[in-house]
Design a protein that fits this description.
- It contains 13 helices and twelve strands.
- With 301 residues, it is α/β, with parallel strands linked by helices.
- The protein has a single domain, classed as TIM Barrel, CATH 3.20.20.220.
- An eight-stranded parallel barrel has the order 1-2-3-4-5-6-7-10, surrounded by four helices.
């Protein structure tokens, strides 16, 4: 009879599972990146195409179509506050269906403080029924392990419950994608709180890909994730350290080792330092080309 797996073996196996089921983010303005991502990651990997204020809907559509053509699964960010009206939403969703065969989307309010049209929240768009009418029946909603800098936790919980209730009534598949976070304790605590409150939908945890410390700090400040800033700044910040490339090993190890990690369906990678180094990191870990021991988590090149 084989002996029980050690804690390190359990964590290593968990890391492989989390990364193998991972997804990746790419910019709406770079459709050419789709083929390069497809050369590094397995066919069907979900690739989320963001929708930032400086990019048009047309930018997003071109990249989503390129992702689909490359054999990957396109997942658009749909920012409700950037949709001018119901007809604009209908037209865009029809294009997503017809030109990129989109069936899954991450529906967010968007960073705009003032909506350009009638949708002031992701729920306002969701409750129109337009998404499922255009073939999108797998809906991602946002999660915040460290809270939101402008929204009270009680409001986040109430909005999440409304969306989950709507999805249950209408037979939609819902999953949660979290904001990126560098504090593994905050992530594990967030997962535990969700599960203790009866939230059973799949969770995809956001982590940063390969990037230097300065880049990570800039994104953390921009997104208002205070604990992550403190986690990154736990050691003295020298110029060499600012320029040092850092991976998500510490975060992934903690999630994989925690009991709560078993309820995380996969990781969602934000490749702030470029998709290629992050995709190669994913390749290595998913294939088991890493060493996890008491000294740390070392990924093979």
């Amino acid at each position: 009879m084989s002996s029980p797996a050690s804690a390190l073996e359990v964590a290593a196996a968990g890391a492989v599972d989390l990364v193998a089921a991972g997804s990746l983010e790419m910019g709406a303005h770079r459709p050419q990146d789709a083929l390069a991502i497809a050369a590094l990651l397995p066919a069907g990997t979900p690739v989320y195409v963001n929708h930032l204020p400086r990019h048009s809907l047309a930018d997003s559509l071109a990249s989503l179509a390129a992702v689909r053509a490359a054999g990957l699964e396109p997942v658009p960010h749909i920012a409700a506050r950037r949709l001018a009206n119901r007809e604009a939403a209908r037209e865009f969703l029809a294009l997503l269906r017809d030109e990129a065969q989109v069936t899954r989307a991450l529906v967010i309010a968007g960073d705009s403080r003032v909506p350009v049209g009638p949708f002031d929240s992701s729920f306002a768009l969701l409750e129109t029924g337009l998404l499922e009418a255009h073939g999108i029946r797998s809906i991602g909603i946002a999660g915040y392990p460290e809270g939101h800098p402008r929204i009270a936790e009680s409001a986040i919980e109430a909005a999440r419950d409304r969306k989950l209730a709507y999805a249950a009534r209408n037979g939609l598949d819902v999953f949660i994608v979290s904001q990126f976070c560098f504090d593994p304790g905050a992530i594990v605590g967030w997962v535990e709180r969700l599960r203790s409150r009866g939230v059973t939908v799949p969770l995809r945890v956001g982590v940063a890909g390969i990037a230097n410390i300065r880049t990570l700090l800039n994104y953390a400040r921009r997104c208002g994730i205070g604990n992550s800033i403190r986690a990154l700044g736990a050691e003295p910040i020298s110029l060499p350290r600012l320029l040092t490339q850092q991976g998500p090993e510490r975060v992934v190890r903690r999630i994989a080792a925690a009991a709560a990690g078993a309820s995380v369906v996969g990781l969602h990678f934000f490749p702030f330092g470029g998709f290629a180094p992050t995709a190669r990191w994913l390749q290595s870990v998913a294939a088991g080309r890493f060493r996890l021991d008491d000294a740390g988590f070392t990924v093979e090149d």
